[in-house]
Amino acid sequence: MKKLLVSSAVALSLGAAAGAASAEDIKVGVFLGLTGPLESLVANMAPGAEAAIAEVSESGKFMDGSTVTAVRADTTCVDAAAATSAIERLITSDKVAGVVGGDCSGVTTAALTNVAMPNGMVMISPSATSPALSTIEDNGLFFRTAPSDARQGVVMSNIIMERGFKEVALSYTNNDYGKGLADAFQSAFEEAGGTVTISSSHEDNKADYSAEVGALASAGGEILVVAGYLDSGGKGIIQGAIDTGAFDTFVLPDGMVGDSLPVAIGPDLNGSFGQAPGTDSEGAGMFVELAEGFDATSPFAAESYDAAALLLLAMQAAGSTDPQMYKDSVMDVANAPGEPILPGQLGKALEVLAAGGEIDYVGASNVELIGGGESAGNYREIEIQDEALQTVGYR
Amino acid sequence: MENWLNAFALLSNFVIVPALAYGSQLALGALGVTLVFGILRFSNFAHGDTMAFGTMVVILFTWWFQSMGINLGPLPTALLALPFGILFCALFALLSDRLVYRFYRAKRADPVIYLIASVGVMFVTNGIVRFIIGPDDQNFADGERFIIRARDFKEMTGLAEGVSIKLSQGITFFTMIIVVIALFWFLNKTRSGKSMRAYSDNEDLALLSGINPDRVVAITWIIAAALATIAGTLYGLDKSFKPFTYFQLLLPIFAAAIVGGLGNPLGAIAGGFVIAFSEITVTYAYKRFIGHLVPEDWEINGLIQLLSTDYKFAVSFIILLLVLLIRPHGIFKGTGV
Predict the structure, then answer these.
(1) What ipTM does this complex have?
(2) How many domains does the structure of chain B reveal?
(3) Is A33 within 8 Å of chain B by CB?
(4) Measured between alpha carbons, how far is B219 from A11 in angstroms, rounded to an integer?
(5) Beta strand pairing call for A374-375 and A369-370
(6) Chosen from A170, A199, A243 to mutate, greatest number of chain B CBs within 10 A
(7) What is the DSSP-derived secondary structure letter of residue B241?
(8) Which of A89, A99, A104, A200 is the most buried (most CB within 10 A)?
(9) pTM of this prediction?
(10) Domain hosting residue B26, numbered range
(11) Does A40 contact chain B (CB < 8 Å)?
């Protein structure tokens, strides 16, 4: 009897120790397109996410002094099979406690439905913006710090209308992101009284875009909306349209906003405009100051930081690294009520949570999660002036 | 009359000029593939990345020249750097032959083993290029951009439609012609070229008649590397350099080489243009073109497009399938696949 008591006491204490998560090393997956059409943005997104992870880890206040390590995996942005096996490796072999990612909507959907859901793993994407992800069955496991493109379509339509254009041609990259944004934009624009002369897709990374440009030019329109990727097909379409004199002005949604585009195209791009998620909030400025070795103003870098921060703060709030336990805390830490938390204050947030308090994570991108766990969306209106991106307003 | 001229200008601007340039780039790439296939008897999947490697060296030298202030005036500096790119790319190709393919040649391995080995070489080359120059887009075109701009053309001729011809498109086309003439002269008139053709026709007989196989193989690699570097540089000047795109170029290049007849240089050139023109003409929207030809009060509602541009790649593959079904050896008689 005595023996039994002792052994059960030992077992209990062991169980308690495991439950209270004594200091250990926790792994977090950084699941972004290290190669593929978004690789130049990911060069700033991955360090953004890792900055938050390092900040939490170095604070020493996370889950009784646990450390956090980032494990990178490649979504490739376009290859669903490669992305699926990459996230499978993260979950089954690296045993990560949560995943920051994926980046492109198509691979994110594949990774979520094929691997993350069956394994009960939480994913927080910084940049998957397809409207389809708003309604996807996710068992409460999927969140995103990027807004849905349904919202971006409306914002883009407003910007174009305000500039007095009524007739546009539309070219989109042939994937979930491009198609989703193109459809959202077309319905918003037509509802506002505009005309879309042609809505045609293009494939990324192809050798030649003469055929696409020819069709767009034939359909006509005052300006060309290019819902693509700046390192890839989107740039090819713009270059082709300028070279043949088909269009002079282009509308650039988030996938096309980056410093490399005006450099690559040159002065002909001046006067083109567009929008990307962004905010002029206090947090964005603080994030720029905090960034070391990467460009914090690059699209989705702030969202990446926020995604990683949210993931870890949710774990702290739930007191567990088990996705089933902390998945319900994500919305709590992201939204009011609670103490507002800006970039660089993650240590403070961990303290508040450890003491049983509440936080309202604002972060670098003014995070406010709505609906099934996606950002409400703040947009930065940009224009290309003197061969550089200029911010001309916020919406 | 003016309507016809407008229609022709429109078609030139959006179909003929781009297809000629793209076709030349594909033809040069396909020539390299077909040469390796004809003489070394395997499909070299590393060709796209060999192009990337050569172009990378050209870009590095271009930057160096630019930093020293050396340029060719209106012509792109890259043309000056081209010989260096060819040199390094040839050394790289010879090195890969020495390290990989020679082993299999000594064992007289099946072509399929070569093919798999070339996939390995492809990935290694891919990695080296990304390691040295990075995965990003690189712009290295300088000098004049256009031979004629669409706007200037309109002012000059008074037509409603403009034709723009980029300098890179002109250079591409003429370089292609020069390279093809030089290659055919080499293969048909010189001793080395004849020994290559002999080796290609019958390896054992060639060896018996005293042809040095190592020399033939080395020359083949050097020429293939030169073609790859030229094709890659011209493509990069016309569009832009990104390692990933060069990897993707492999597909249309192989389609061109197979359509024309693998192993037949003439076929590679024809194949390049067939693929380029079919991709563009079949998916072009003829709304504006027809609009110029019919009476002005006719209103055209549709785009008059045979196939949506989504099916662009299906077009080249359908042609590929048809050719393989009807003429398995390609349009010009090649060795067959």
Answers:
(1) 0.76
(2) 1
(3) no
(4) 75
(5) antiparallel
(6) A243
(7) B
(8) A104
(9) 0.73
(10) 2-326
(11) yes
